[in-house]
Each structure stands twice: as structure tokens, then as C-alpha cells.
Amino acid sequence: xxxxxxxxxxxxxxxxxxxxxxxxxxxxxxxxxxxxxxxxxxxxxxxxxxxxxxxxxxxxxxxxxxxxxxxxxxxxxxxxxxxxxxxxxxxxxxxxxxxxxxxxxxxxxxxxxxxxxxxxxxxxx
Length: 125
Known about the structure:
Oligomer: single chain
Number of domains: 1
């Protein structure tokens, strides 16, 4: 059994505090390393949500990788955050959009992380 804390959550897109030095890339690296160290039958306690397994963690990491790639592609095409939101570039991952972090907020997080922009600290409502 392993408790992942808020590095792995089940409520949808994660909160990553880019303004304080966190990064999507760092979260991906940490999660990839953790998955190599865990046995296949591990029980995973997320920071929020239901008891999980290694497949759930791998799906979470895959989502982080794929959404990062989608935003990086848009950045490479010189698209603004507003254009990314209007084009709904995270639509393929809409099941991850939640009340706390929706697709638009996650686009901002990904863009800020990938470009090294600190952005604003996401305030809890």
C-alpha cells in the first residue's frame, strides 16, 4: 500500500502550484519514478478520491503526458491561452475536467508550466 498524497488525485485534473515552483513536468517525472518502484498489486491511496491501483496511476500519468503534449503543440503553433481555450484543445480529456480544476484552468497550468511562466496562484473558491 502507498499513499500518493496530492501527487495523485481522483477528482480530475490536478492542482499544480506553478506559481510556487511546481511543474507538470516534475509531477510526470515523479509519478513515472513511483510507478517503477511499486509492485503490480499495490493499493494506491490518492490525495483525494477512491482507493486505486497501479493502472489508475498509469492512466493519470498518461493524461498528464498527453495534455502536456497537446498544449506544447499549441504553444509551438504560437497559440495564446485564449485560443487554446476557444479551440477546446483538451476536449479529448473532458472526463478529467472537474469542479476544482476545469479544462480552461488546466490549460493555464500546462501553459505556465511549459513556458516557465509563474502565473497566479490558483485561489480556492
